[in-house]
């Protein structure tokens, strides 16, 4: 009886072992079949296994690079088949493509933290055919580039990216990633047209030749920077091959400081003087005003100033003016973005869904007047230059009669 029991037990154990081996083999085969045989795993020995969870989106079998480029090329041509090129310097799509020997329409947004630059950047990125360079200098955290020694490298990076040259940039990004100074996704996730491909595969993510070839397919390029002051941009404007148009976005310093103190903006709280001190914020606003006045005289058709409050209160009218300046046509996709992102409050500190008319003066109901007075004392000159009225006292600040915006016309004020 014991021998029979042992015999059945051995058979059962053997069957379980065989089933386990078959299951493992099938899983391994499926995993191997999903990989892209066209590209070697160049980072296999560079990235530790502990990082695997950061690349855990299922790979359903990616096309190779040539297929990605061809699909993207066809999609852009289809999406812009009815596009009106009247406002641009080009007569057709091919004249705006680097891969065809043309030059894309390039726009550069200069601002500072919590001034509405993400919203403005997303408006531009709502354009079909746009390649979005989102915050290339995120790795320096809450720090402003105002001059040497960082300025030279920063400007060369801006110019290289606008030319779709990613070699130096991605090499530095990889080094920072391996030192755990950056996450592998946040900076590029805002470029959804690129992200849908690179999010699956770390080899593709760190392949500068793919980034370069992909970028050259797009007729429009936009970039936003909140860590570089306007006076440094002259070298970019001097590069006539780029023909970049610059948009300076400013916001009431009282609103900026209030937003920087909000929930979810931990990087800014008491960790960096550049991000926490009103004196530095408003010194930059004065510097930007002086630079804007100079650059607008030198390049009258390539610099535009926007106040975030004007964009919030009149989003479509202001966007029409912006797009006319940039040589862009207002498309249904942009209009849909404005409709959905200015009438609904949703998401956290970094979301761009807002009831736009409620945004500009929110600080009046949150900040204590004593703190507002402190900001106004440090920022009076900057506020005068950019058309922001002072609150006289707590009662005045809370009253309906107090309207913080003065009339502002950037073309006349900057040339005065």
Describe this structure in a few short sentences.
The chain is an alpha/beta fold. The chain has a domain at 87-164 and 216-406: Rossmann fold.
Task: Describe this protein's structure.
There is one protein chain. This protein is of the alpha/beta class and 416 residues long. The protein has a domain at 87-164 and 216-406: Rossmann fold (3-Layer(aba) Sandwich). Helices cover 48% and strands 8% of the residues. The protein is built from 19 helices and seven strands. It has a five-stranded parallel beta sheet with strand order 2-3-1-4-5, sandwiched between helices. The longest helix has 33 residues, at 2-34. The N and C termini lie far apart (107 Å). 32% of the residues are buried.
Topology:
Elements: H1 2-34, H2 65-79, E1 105-110, H3 117-125, E2 130-134, H4 150-162, H5 167-178, H6 186-189, H7 192-198, H8 202-205, H9 208-215, E3 220-225, H10 234-238, E4 245-250, H11 253-260, H12 273-276, H13 278-298, E5 303-307, H14 308-313, H15 315-326, H16 332-341, E6 343-346, E7 353-355, H17 369-386, H18 394-398, H19 410-413
Parallel strand pairs: 1-3, 1-4, 2-3, 4-5
Antiparallel strand pairs: 6-7
Helix pairs in contact: 13-17
Question: What's the CATH topology name of the domain at 87-164 and 216-406?
Answer: Rossmann fold
- Overall number of strands: 7
Query: What is the rounded distance between the termini?
Result: 107 Å
The pLDDT mean sits at 83
Query: How do the strands line up in the largest sheet?
Result: 2-3-1-4-5
Helix count equals: 19
What order do the SSEs take from the amino end to the carboxyl end, as H and E? HHEHEHHHHHHEHEHHHEHHHEEHHH
CATH fourth-tier homologous superfamily of the domain at 87-164 and 216-406: P-loop containing nucleotide triphosphate hydrolases
Anisotropy-based shape: globular
Report the major sheet: 5 strands, parallel
Poorly predicted ranges? 1-8, 18-50, 345-355
What share of the residues lie within helices? 40-55%
